[in-house]
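Assemble and predict.
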Amino acid sequence: MSKLVIVVTGASSGIGLELTRILAKRGHQIYATARRPEQMKSIDGVVEILKLDVTDTSSIKNCIEHVIASEGRIDVLVNNAGFAQVGGWEEVSLDQVRAQFETNLFGALACIQAVLPHMRKAGHGRIINVTSVMSFIPAPFWGIYAASKAALDSLSESLYQELRPLGIRVTAVQPGITRTPLHNVMELPGKPVDAYTERRGRSFRATAFMERWTGSSPRFVAKQVARAATWPWFGLRRRVGVDAWLLWPLRKFSPLFVMFEGIRTFFWQDWSGLARFIVAVVLFRAALFGLIVLLL
Ligand SMILES: NC(=O)c1ccc[n+]([C@@H]2O[C@H](COP(=O)([O-])OP(=O)(O)OC[C@H]3O[C@@H](n4cnc5c(N)ncnc54)[C@H](OP(=O)(O)O)[C@@H]3O)[C@@H](O)[C@H]2O)c1
């Protein structure tokens, strides 16, 4: 496979950092980007670490122009930068919601708009948008994050159709819960409401539980993103992780009330009890087994 010129956003940690390492090791021309490049250690094989804040259009422009000046082209853009704003819809300020969309949706779109003229001119290119399992299963108290990822997922689908005739491919990678710093740095609601406190807490404990026991490693997710970025044929969507593969049929085929009941049971459960932990592990394994039988 020839060397691809690849720009990765949000390469300072988690999935983006692992992806950068994997692609650089395979010999591609990687431009890793971060908000604070000066705080990043150099990564073997990476051409350069550049400054790019997806909410700052001038930093996007400077970064893309620099890569074009150095390489003459950009083959792949990986829109990976993102963060999680959580809390009930009543509890978050509109500014918090705007900030979430500013990074997760408008930031990705700004990067897409910056690379597309060059990809169109070259007659080929690939755009990978890292969305989330939450884009098709919006969990309670994760609605703001889920909405931003669902919007990015929807953008990916229409963009896919607009760009196919021009030789440019688009893939939305939908990871399930992954063990990265995202969960430590998620922003809490600005104006908490007492009526939600207990269920919000349970919802966060449920995701922490999932992260710990069933979460994918960032390296595993990054490998799938790397495939989407480099394989010649790749479809519009790619679910990554056991939870993503289990939840997708639930969304697609089960009646809404069954899905809501499942989500409520899981997210509003008191995960501190040992008995419940055991029940959860047994249920999870049974579901996994069922899925494997279904696929065989
Ligand atoms: N972890 C999960 O469970 C999970 C599940 C599904 C999807 N995802 C998605 O996967 C992507 C990577 O997240 P992660 O899990 O690897 O979390 P992470 O380790 O926190 O990485 C997020 C990256 O995005 C960067 N970032 C945030 N805001 C930015 C901005 N305005 N401009 C440029 N970079 C910015 C962060 O940079 P700083 O270091 O400067 O903050 C960091 O490098 C995100 O889009 C996330 O929504 C994560």
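The two ends are 32 Å apart (CA to CA).
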